[in-house]
């Protein structure tokens, strides 16, 4: 495959991943409607993913054994962050949950600056200010304090912060390849969901006919979203500039907001949309390639 063709394929994979994750709330809420409320649906999805990826983890067990614990923890922490994001869809509006998650570039810049000692170009300082301003406008649209309201918004915000810690650790320490990384990622998510589940909702009691349908949907969701799409994304991201990856993944915001408006009758107010646009613009500033940042 020629380099241009490889770049085009990688770009298409990242774009498709953003579109796919824009619809992720649908199976999560479908499982909730079938009785797997709270974190139980996410636990079923991620546990199914662990089972599906287990053979690949066994095949790569020597690589996993050689990987530094801090790298494994960083990948598992990413899974924990995604679990919070997933659970949040049952407790909040889809567009707000996604937009809160997309504040993660702001947290990543702060972590890189104050914990890792990485340089922070002036334009990224502007991105931080804009991101926090967008957050304040979005969450304070009704005139109240600009704080997350409800468990779902808090989960997405905390999940985005944890994701930033995770990606910082992966960037600094991890050399693990895509398939075993996806297994550790799903394992971290499954453990997190199972730990949180009893505190959010009681253990559901399901009839056998429900169990079969739920198992099928959980395996399909885990295999498609947490398995195939994430492995493909990991393959694609190492072949593209980080800026292009981040911009293409922002398709998730558009697809999520539109699908929620059309299928769940969820819409944003004018102030919420304005704050969301500012958050996305801050994300774009964050991922502008370094050669442009040096001239800022």
Automatic annotation (TrEMBL):
<feature type="transmembrane region" description="Helical">
    <location>
        <begin position="7"/>
        <end position="26"/>
    </location>
</feature>
<keyword id="KW-1133">Transmembrane helix</keyword>
<feature type="transmembrane region" description="Helical">
    <location>
        <begin position="177"/>
        <end position="197"/>
    </location>
</feature>
<feature type="transmembrane region" description="Helical">
    <location>
        <begin position="217"/>
        <end position="238"/>
    </location>
</feature>
<feature type="transmembrane region" description="Helical">
    <location>
        <begin position="123"/>
        <end position="141"/>
    </location>
</feature>
<feature type="transmembrane region" description="Helical">
    <location>
        <begin position="245"/>
        <end position="264"/>
    </location>
</feature>
<feature type="transmembrane region" description="Helical">
    <location>
        <begin position="147"/>
        <end position="165"/>
    </location>
</feature>
<keyword id="KW-0812">Transmembrane</keyword>
<keyword id="KW-0472">Membrane</keyword>
<feature type="transmembrane region" description="Helical">
    <location>
        <begin position="38"/>
        <end position="58"/>
    </location>
</feature>
<feature type="transmembrane region" description="Helical">
    <location>
        <begin position="94"/>
        <end position="116"/>
    </location>
</feature>
<feature type="transmembrane region" description="Helical">
    <location>
        <begin position="70"/>
        <end position="88"/>
    </location>
</feature>
<protein>
    <submittedName>
        <fullName>DMT family transporter</fullName>
    </submittedName>
</protein>
<feature type="transmembrane region" description="Helical">
    <location>
        <begin position="270"/>
        <end position="288"/>
    </location>
</feature>
